[in-house]
Amino acid sequence: MQMIKIFGEHDFELHEPEVGTLPDFLQPRWSVALNRSALVRELAQAQDRETAERALRRYVERAEQAVLMVGRGFYPVKIGKGKTERSRRIALACARGPEPDAPAVTSRFYAPAALVVLAPPGARGHQDAFLPAFWVREKLKEVAARAVYARQQFERVPRAKPCWPAHLIQQFLESLLSQLPAAHVIEAERLARDRERARLAAQRTAVAPVTEQQREAVRAELQARERALELRRARRNAKMPIRTNVNVRWTTWTSLRRRFLSHEHHAQNVSVRVAGAVSYVICPDGREVRVATKNLEYV
Question: Which of 44, 97, 125, 266 is deepest in the core (most CB within 10 A)?
Fold first, then answer.
């Protein structure tokens, strides 16, 4: 589940879609197979529901190819009555080996009824059936290993390519489309945002402009603060002992790649005010350098 912005501003919570007719262990986990950053971008740029629906349909097409690439597809099969109500007899068209011109062969085996995915009946009552590709591959290996005769011990390769049944893709798409906000909800929220923007714009217009007298008052207050700061600094300096016209040397430390490096500094004809653990080196140009007293040395 992911909270994204749809239509630029609308909060839209995108849930992991599920195909309702599939058991949990057969769910495709679309977001794992496909990065949704492109979908998030397209939904954020969409201006209406129709544009968002087109973006979701494109996402479904990309997701189908992605889940097939990671082996989460299905093989079309023919089914018959099984030994019990919980099993089905399966017939799958295969080839004797991976070669393109390999002779055809029909592999028959039993599968759990819970794994068989049935499509809705067609116009003539025909009903397609599908089995998970990962289960079919393992079952074909088991069929070859269980063969009694040597001529039956060959690799069976399904002739059909893995696919996702059309009705499952449609269920996935409908699960996404159902999460989109309705068109009238989107329009109502857009009108509410427009009214709020207009109200804020009117408030900004109604605010009186700053006068020259107000600017002068602000400048006078800043200057008063600077004078008070200078006065406190002068009082502090008057209380500290001072040494004039001295040459000093001090060391500072910096770290580089977890290593500490020392830097030595020199100053000539300076004044030094000492305030306990801190000393102030006053240069001829008036610049003041704060140095730890223990690191300061007179030369």
Answer: 44
Continuous H helices in 159-211: 166-177, 183-206
Considering the entire predicted model, what is its pTM? 0.52
How far is Cα 98 from Cα 210, in angstroms, rounded to an integer? 83
pLDDT at 191: 83
C-alpha–C-alpha distance, residues 14 and 2, integer Å:
5
What is the per-residue pLDDT for 9?
Answer: 54
Say if CB 274 and CB 293 are below 8 A apart. yes
Choose the weakest-confidence range: 14-18, 68-72, 236-240, 257-261.
Answer: 14-18
pLDDT at residue number 224: 92
Residue 264 has pLDDT above 60, yes or no: yes
Question: Which tokens go with 298?
Answer: 């007179």
Tokens for 24, please give them. Answer: 């949990």
* Residue 144 and residue 156 in contact, taking contact as beta carbons nearer than 8 Å: yes
Tens digit of each residue's pLDDT (9 = 90 or more) over 138-175: 999 998 888 877 788 888 999 888 888 888 888 888 87
> Which residues pair with residue 6 across a beta bridge?
10
Distances (CA, A) of 231 to 59, 78, 238, 262, 283: 69, 97, 11, 35, 20
* Rounded Cα–Cα distance for residues 67 and 76 (Å): 17
Percent helix, strand, coil in the chain, to 5, is 40, 30, 30
Residue for token pair 């839209």:
12
